[in-house]
Structures are given as C-alpha cells and as structure tokens.
Design a protein that fits this description.
The protein is α/β, with parallel strands linked by helices. It is about 50% helix and about 25% strand. The structure holds S-adenosylmethionine. Keywords: Menaquinone biosynthesis, Methyltransferase, S-adenosyl-L-methionine, Transferase, Ubiquinone.
Amino acid sequence: MKETQQIKSMFDRIVGRYDFLNHLLSFGQDFFWRKKMAEHAVNGGTTIVLDLATGTADSARALLKRGAKVVGVDISFEMLRTGNKKIKKKKRNAFFSAVVASGYRLPFRDECFDAVTCAFGIRNMHETESAVKEIYRVIKKGGRIVILEFSIPDGFFRKPYLLYLKKIVPFIASVFSVRSAYEYLGSSIEGFYKPREIIKLLENCSFRNIKAIPLSFRSVYLYVGKKNPL
Ligand SMILES: C[S@@+](CC[C@H](N)C(=O)[O-])C[C@H]1O[C@@H](n2cnc3c(N)ncnc32)[C@H](O)[C@@H]1O
C-alpha cells in the first residue's frame, strides 16, 4: 500500500529527534500516558503483550516496567532498531522481541497474546477497521485491547489546542526535525475518528466492556476493551 509506505519512510526520517520532540511537545505528559496504558494492559500474572506500532519502544518500556513480556511490531525498521537498542542498553535481558511487520497483517497465529496495546499508532492505519479486526484475531479469549490516541478537546480548550497543534507544533518541528511530518500529525488527528466513533468501531469488531478514558483535558484518550472470554 502506497500510503503505508509513505508513513513508513516518514518515520524512518524523523527517528533521530522523535523521542526528544515527543517529550518536549507533550510537556513530558507522554510518560504518564504510556504508564496509564501499561496499567490497563498488565494486571498481574505473566502477561504477553503485543505492542503494535511500538516505534522507538517507549510504549514497550512502560509495559516491561509492569513485568510484561513484550513483542514490539512496527513497519519502520529505523524506529524499531532505535527502540530495540534503547531497551537492550537499559536492561540486556529484558523480554522484548522486535518484529518488522504491518498492523494489517500480523505474523502471529490466532489468540496468542494476553493483550494488544497501540500507542499513537492506530491513527496511521487508515484502514482502521481492518487493523482492529487483525488485533482482535491475535488476542486470546478474555484478553484486552488498549489503545492510546490523540483527540481534539471540545469547548474552552478547542481553539488554543488547535492553534498549538497546527501552528506552534509545526514551527517547533521545523527547528528540530521535519516540519511536514508534524503537519501530518495535526491533520491526521483532525481527520481521525472521534472518541464515540472509536467506541463504535471497537464494538463492531466484537470487543466488549469498552471504556474511553480521557486524559490531559481530553487531548488524549485511552480506549480499553475485552475480547469475549467464551
Ligand atoms: C507516533 S509513533 C508511536 C510509537 C510508540 N508507540 C510511542 O508511543 O511513541 C507511530 C508508529 O506507528 C508505526 N506504524 C504506522 N503504520 C503502521 C502499520 N501499518 N503497521 C505497523 N506500524 C505502523 C510507525 O512506523 C511509527 O513507529
């Protein structure tokens, strides 16, 4: 798919400053968001988690800290390579396995993960329903999906947030990285499903007990759902 190839090359290009800009542009909130995601994905026992769109593995690291065994999947080899290096540098024997693959076609058998997480990745999969169905396939019965994704706040914060996202973020990015990638960030957030549409999508893909948890003035949502245990 041409679109997926373009996204892959964009992430390959911005990898060098990706983490730095994440922390800067989110005012350090990104650590808190991923920690919350990990708390919902891993709750006791041995948990084998597929972290889809794992990127430079900050999301995988949050899961490892909770004691999970993590398989990190991404289409960008450069992002994965950086992530894998970071993890192995901190903890040589961390249970982290990096796999280059697309979310549309996961190279795993049915029902082999206790949970699948996806932090800020699902928005890049434009055939979102196919990607969610593929996630459903690899989750064990009774297992969880945990998605972290940006959203545009309503009400008072909407205008200042849009100004920040569409003007200030691309400007800061032009100083440190590739401006167009961060313009894409803004337009992809605006064009993506609204929280209630994501809930509907998860329901349509057979997930149950779905919760949408707003974080940081509703600029980020955590979506949690369960695969039927029967
Ligand atoms: C914004 S980054 C998120 C990385 C990481 N999860 C985090 O929390 O920082 C999005 C990642 O999604 C990956 N990605 C985009 N489309 C994908 C696809 N179809 N399959 C797998 N990964 C994909 C990109 O390569 C990129 O590393």
